[in-house]
UniProtKB/TrEMBL annotation, chains A, B:
Residues 25-132 form the Alcohol dehydrogenase-like N-terminal domain. SUPFAM superfamilies: GroES-like, NAD(P)-binding Rossmann-fold domains. Residues 185-309 form the Alcohol dehydrogenase-like C-terminal domain. Keywords: Metal-binding, Oxidoreductase, Zinc. InterPro entries: ADH-like_C, ADH-like_N, ADH_Zn_CS, GroES-like_sf, NAD(P)-bd_dom_sf. It comes from the Bacteria. Belongs to the zinc-containing alcohol dehydrogenase family. The keyword Oxidoreductase applies. This is Zinc-dependent alcohol dehydrogenase family protein. Its cofactor is Zn(2+). The lineage of its organism: Bacteria, Bacillati, Actinomycetota, Actinomycetes, Micrococcales. The keyword Oxidoreductase applies.
Amino acid sequence: MRATIIHGPGDIKVEDRDYPTIKLPTDAVVKVTASCVCGSDLWPYRGIGKNRGARAIGHEFVGVVEEIGAEVTDLAVGDFVIAPFVDSCGKCPQCLNGVTVACDHLTSWGGDDENGHYVEGAQGEAVRVPQADGTLRRVDGVTDPDQALTANLLTLSDVMSTGHHAAVSAQVGPGRTVVVVGDGAVGLCGVLAAKRLGAERIIAMSRHEDRQTLAREFGATDIVAERGDAGVEKVKELLGGVLADSVLECVGTKESMEQALASTRPGGNLGFVGVPAGGAELPIGLLFSKNITVGGGMAPAHTYIPELLADVLAGKINPGRVFDVEMPLEDAAEAYKAMDERRAIKVLLKP
Amino acid sequence: MRATIIHGPGDIKVEDRDYPTIKLPTDAVVKVTASCVCGSDLWPYRGIGKNRGARAIGHEFVGVVEEIGAEVTDLAVGDFVIAPFVDSCGKCPQCLNGVTVACDHLTSWGGDDENGHYVEGAQGEAVRVPQADGTLRRVDGVTDPDQALTANLLTLSDVMSTGHHAAVSAQVGPGRTVVVVGDGAVGLCGVLAAKRLGAERIIAMSRHEDRQTLAREFGATDIVAERGDAGVEKVKELLGGVLADSVLECVGTKESMEQALASTRPGGNLGFVGVPAGGAELPIGLLFSKNITVGGGMAPAHTYIPELLADVLAGKINPGRVFDVEMPLEDAAEAYKAMDERRAIKVLLKP
């Protein structure tokens, strides 16, 4: 089968690999019908962080169950499934607490599982899913979704669940004022999540016209293009002299975290989901004196999928709109390039 | 009148000062009937932080209104009042949000107010209270409280409100498991607050027998004397292999923050109220990967006093038990010494 391999910074190739097979009785093999490139895939692509050598990449996919191990009980061949961006067992205390991303038996796509068996990356034709019952979410009543529904379902794998996590962590709710820092797919999904949770006012910080348009479509009431102190002043002006109740940090850099902290009112809540990179810090003295509560981290997509899926299937939310470009899997290298150069918000890859 | 002055590290003197008078129409003058020494007063006493020169000290008191300015409407001469540990206006957006400690017109005891007028410290015979309507909390039906009630009311000025803030910030509630790091007066009040909020299990980390006894009286179900990794292991063992849902950090040092972070389960909540001193940090990578939410800071005592006062007056809580020593104001130097040497948990000073 064909699979996307990152060899090093800027070096993405689609290559031949063995088709996955069941290794453990708790495995399933899923034929990928859609995958995509994540903003966090751009970190290794740009050479940020440790170079882990050539490896399969991609952690977001939807598809159809092709084969199941003898101990898989909640899935059947032919089921259409959403894979969260990490594997989880569903049985440990962390999973039972809903914090599947801290699962005691956590496995990442494109790495090895606990037993040392290779796990395929999501940007390929098929994947062996360890702990399949604990990991996958079945989409009942769906077998062959059209392009729009496929895109919507695929966002639940990561970006929509992550935007939702930012909003939940920032205590977004009815009557709350919200600032979203970051206009990538996650930030845009954060806007949509804030709207869905009943926020009164949603300010999207964005300097790109196409993203501003989508932010407004998703529920942003205001756009702030300014950054730094000027951005904070603009937020304050829009909110009648006070900063925001809830701020969603959806980037992960030093600058975006500073922007987010400076936009939060005393006693407000900051939800951060941007993978920390480039010196982002949480200054304890500032949090102490301003009584800012900070929460977030990796989103427990597995936990959030049921409620978000219900709204997708009911036609209430269309997070799939973040995919502005679709390409065949073979063009993965170009997909990375388009996202790196900000020519695309998020690229959907069709195997 | 007599007032406590800190001249530098270890140098506490009780001296003569002018009796306060009304300076602004929004002022009140309060005759102090009880004050006390705070754990945070020990920072300058120990020479930690900036030496601000000779100044009046103390920020917790209760007393009787002796005089009011022409614009004071919510208080009358003879009212018994509790003073939160900072002054606040009650009208700015932060006060209206309940975050009185971030008041736009914040004033500290023992400093100057916005108009440059001196404000007395709490460890003295009387205090001019700026923004009196916004700052003070009247205790209806009480004019001359006995020793036990005085002690209870005095804790609402700071330590009980602060312990409550730690518990609220750590999302303590029915069914939650709790670890309290710090066995000073604030930590002990944190135990009481956790009990009051319905926690299922409350583990107090303490190595001092007198404090362990009071922690149990306040509702601690378990005591852990070990620290560091051994302490974390003990917590895990007591909680059946999982760390705590809610952790209250009530010290403010690097070690106590590390202990608190290491005691919080993935997806748990850490409430921190210890004034950060000595390199306490919030490591963003750990919070991200463990999905730990951190909140807290200076407690908005003014906001919390009504609900806590109701429970004090109803005899439901007795936070005043943290005062294990009472001394005349004249012995303030000895009071500091006793607390510094941990011979006292908290000393009440009677002018």
